[in-house]
Specification:
2 domains; Rossmann fold; six-stranded parallel sheet; 374 residues; four-stranded parallel sheet
Length: 374
């Protein structure tokens, strides 16, 4: 699956000496960002390969589905062909329902091929509560040889649902962070007057209770600018019209724009009903913003100690709890300064791209057949 997390993670293997192949499981097409690896893409289309597919799909959807089911190449067929041609030492799948379930039968058939699975975000925590996904989880995990997660919580969940292989560790979903690039933006705590809010309101995102809490203490926040990013929900965007606050509601921003905002923000607030270790929160830590973050399944508590280097939201729907957390933070600026110093050191020791990449490469090396005798 070609997304930002996958690109960042896989880039750790660039120039590592490993021969890396990407099987484009969604057949999204050639990716210039992944040009350094061998790409197996363009495998799906069995008819109208160059033009006309979109037209037929829109105008004649039932006919298109019929043709697709009869003429297009299945994931299983294409993946098995690639597997037999490449003969990999290990297959690494990212996200269970996208990259594991579709190739399960092939991996079950080829039991001798080692299988590594990276659990991201809500992959196990959320989807274990949906019966059809739980069936896939309990089917796939016993076949998996190696597990990587972004939080320790998900290792326990995996064991609960049948994983019996080797746990290789918990790492940030996209690998470490380029701290040198972030450092050039960082402002001292005393110069920060922004409260930054992640604006997702969707299946998992819960920005509305945060914004409602902010409005309820608007007098306390008169000296602060409220900035929301990633807001696509109309209810969230409507907060732009609030007269009690100095508030700016943004839609989707570039990664660099977000890092600049974080590096000048006093507080960062992220709130959701399901996640792994939130990458955006980790970036806030690297950028020096004081994090207030939801804690589904106690994953966030693996990094944040409440009222020390951050604050935990235990009930993402509870506006009152969120209001109390924001109020406590604003009234304890000494805590913010101490958290800034602690989190900057934590980032250097645990979140640096250089350090995480070294650990990741050692992790891959540990799966090599002769590793124990090297």
């Amino acid at each position: 699956m070609n997304n930002l997390h996958f690109t960042r993670w896989s880039d750790q293997l660039r120039e590592s000496g490993h021969e890396v192949y990407w099987f484009d499981i969604l057949d999204q097409g050639y990716s210039p960002a992944l040009s350094w690896m061998t790409q197996v893409t363009g495998w799906k289309k069995g008819f109208l390969k160059k033009r006309g597919r979109t037209f037929v799909k829109k105008r004649f959807p039932k006919f298109f589905s019929f043709l697709s089911s009869k003429l297009d190449i299945s994931v299983e067929t294409a993946f098995e062909k690639a597997l037999l041609e490449i003969q990999p030492d290990v297959v690494h799948s990212f996200a269970l329902y996208i990259s594991c379930t579709p190739i399960f039968k092939v991996m079950k058939k080829h039991e001798n091929v080692k299988w590594m699975y990276s659990s991201w975000g809500s992959d196990l925590y959320y989807y274990q509560n949906i019966p059809e996904y739980l069936n896939d989880i309990q089917k796939v995990l016993p076949r998996v040889d190696y597990l990587i997660t972004d939080c320790l919580r998900d290792h326990k969940i995996a064991i609960k649902h049948g994983f019996k292989g080797d746990f290789l560790g918990a790492f940030p979903g996209g690998g470490g962070f380029k701290l040198t690039a972030i450092q050039k933006y960082i402002k001292p705590v005393a110069e920060r007057k922004v409260i930054l809010i992640k604006g997702n309101q969707n299946r998992s995102g819960r920005a509305l209770p945060v914004l409602e809490a902010i409005v309820s203490i608007s007098k306390l926040l008169i000296d602060y600018k409220i900035i929301v990013f990633g807001a696509t929900n109309p209810e969230v965007r409507a907060f732009q019209n609030q007269k009690e606050l100095d508030i700016t509601v943004n839609g989707i921003l570039s990664h660099d724009q977000i890092l600049k905002l974080m590096s000048s923000s006093l507080i960062y607030i992220g709130n959701s009903n399901s996640d792994g270790m939130p990458n955006t929160m980790l970036e806030a830590i690297c950028s020096g913003a004081f994090p207030i973050q939801s804690n589904p399944g106690n994953a966030t508590a693996e990094v944040l100690t409440h009222q020390s280097n951050g604050l935990l939201i235990e009930d993402c729907e509870d506006m009152e709890e969120i209001k109390q957390n924001i109020t406590f933070t604003i009234q304890n600026l000494d805590m913010i300064q101490k958290a800034f110093e602690y989190n900057q050191l934590y980032a250097q020791e645990h979140l640096s791209r250089t350090i995480v990449t070294k650990k990741v490469l050692l992790m891959y090396q540990s799966t090599e057949p002769n590793y124990a005798t090297n």
